[in-house]
């Protein structure tokens, strides 16, 4: 009698990985997890959260408008997110507008646009558009899969080639410029990379949730280390494991995939933050080591 | 041209406010120049014109064989690859506190950033680059902090690291923006002595902005005293930092030192 539940569990687990949908979803999780979380290290390190949110909502609006016009949503998302990156970067640099305010305007306007065009659609297209909002990782098509995997490779290569430039800009952009690096070009390049990553993961993860997958694994990694290389590697590990764990849980408990992935990522963040070595005060550690612990026991 | 740096009628503005109003200045090779003046008088702006970080509205700056001209509508040089090449030869120590305390960079890496421009895109630091960095850390007295996160250092320690970063660049011009502000008395004397020593040893053309004219007194060859974006006086410290000049620049009641700064700080 006791073997029955574990047997069904085993069959279920095998079932997960044998389904073609699941295999694709896991591959998307690999590419998307790596791309999003490594771009996230850049976004968090450069404190671009608001810019990232604006770019990801621009991608959503672009995708919805492309669907409305009868094109592939990927193309519309790419055009809109790159245009947003090209406009937002110089706009915030010139400092003519308060960054918070101008990006607040851009990002809410993009949501407005997305909903406006969804309202104008017929029911069949609207169903498709809702996929862009909430994500549909299990129905990722060939193009989506190739786009996500290629983006993953692009992000890894870009970070490896420009590692020292990235490090200098995260340290301080004006200093990076002052030592003779093309700091502004690299910075705009990072915004474009964010746009491309957001576009590639729009369909599987969904426009409203992409930015969580960008920020949360990176924020988790920032709890652990002051070393940039370790930061990129551990963020990628958190990103991919959130995707995979989320997919498996969603499958077992019949939950929506993207939302489960983000929830798992959030839980990992909370656990890591609670045990973060950065929060520890050294003198308290010493007190613990010197017998405080044994008293409480 | 014997002068190292030549500014001709330079006008710089930030939006509606003009920061420099037509400043002309020639600096010889190997000079140590102090730049003094009250808040908002254009000291930092004068430094940033030299490394092309400031936006020229009018006039031109010539240095190290490069020319930056404002053109008819004013010009920014942040995106220019030509001026990026020039900046590799200029060490810049900005005002402290510009770096996020949580930044994921340790002290050794923070100094190595000074060599990144020289290395070029796609090339990683070699063994001899790291040796130069370690040697510089030793020289400015922070070798024992090499593996610490940069953000964990005190203001004085960060200032030393910033100077090491500028020097490891092996620059031909050194720009220092208020290297002693917000430091305690002891660190301040140490940093000034360090700057003086570096200048003596390398004869590096150096410009130092300072909030306290007293800092410049015994170490600078010449002092530029700024008031509201214009040069109020320029010349040897004892000629420029007179009570009369300081009163006209800072206002009547701000300085009550008897005999100006001739008492000396060292």
Task: Set down the secondary structure blueprint.
The complex is a heterodimer of chains A (297) and B (266).
Chain A: H1 3-18, H2 20-45, H3 49-68, H4 73-94, H5 99-120, H6 123-134, H7 142-161, H8 163-171, H9 173-178, H10 183-205, H11 210-222, H12 228-253, H13 257-274, H14 282-296
Helix pairs in contact in A: 2-7, 2-10, 2-11, 2-12, 3-4, 3-5, 3-6, 3-10, 4-10, 6-10, 7-10, 11-12, 11-13, 12-13
Chain B: E1 3-14, E2 17-28, E3 32-36, H1 43-50, E4 56-63, E5 66-69, H2 81-87, E6 90-93, H3 107-119, H4 127-140, H5 155-168, E7 173-177, H6 185-202, E8 205-209, H7 213-216, E9 222-227, E10 230-235, H8 237-240, H9 243-250
Parallel strand pairs in B: 3-8, 3-9, 6-7, 7-8
Antiparallel strand pairs in B: 1-2, 1-4, 4-5, 9-10
Helix pairs in contact in B: 3-4, 3-5, 4-5
Q: How does this structure look, described?
A:
The complex is a heterodimer of chains A (297) and B (266). Chain A is mainly α and 297 residues long. Chain A contains 14 helices and no strands. Chain A has one domain: ABC transporter involved in vitamin B12 uptake, BtuC (Orthogonal Bundle). The two termini of chain A are 40 Å apart. Chain A is globular, with a radius of gyration of 21 Å. The model of chain A is unreliable at 1-7 and 291-297 (pLDDT under 50). Chain B has 266 residues and is of the alpha/beta class. Chain B has one domain (29-52, 78-250): 3-Layer(aba) Sandwich (Rossmann fold), CATH 3.40.50. Chain B is 34% helix and 25% strand. Chain B has 9 helices and 10 strands. In chain B, helix 3 packs across helix 4 (127-140) and helix 4 packs across helix 5 (155-168). The longest helix of chain B has 18 residues, at 185-202. Chain B is globular. The model of chain B is unreliable at 254-266 (pLDDT under 50). The A-B interface holds A 45, 47, 96, 161-165, 167-168, 170-172, 174-185, 222, 225-228, 231 and B 15, 51, 53, 78-79, 81, 84-90, 92, 94, 98-100, 102-106, 109-110, 113-119, 121-122, 124-125, 149-150, 165, 169.
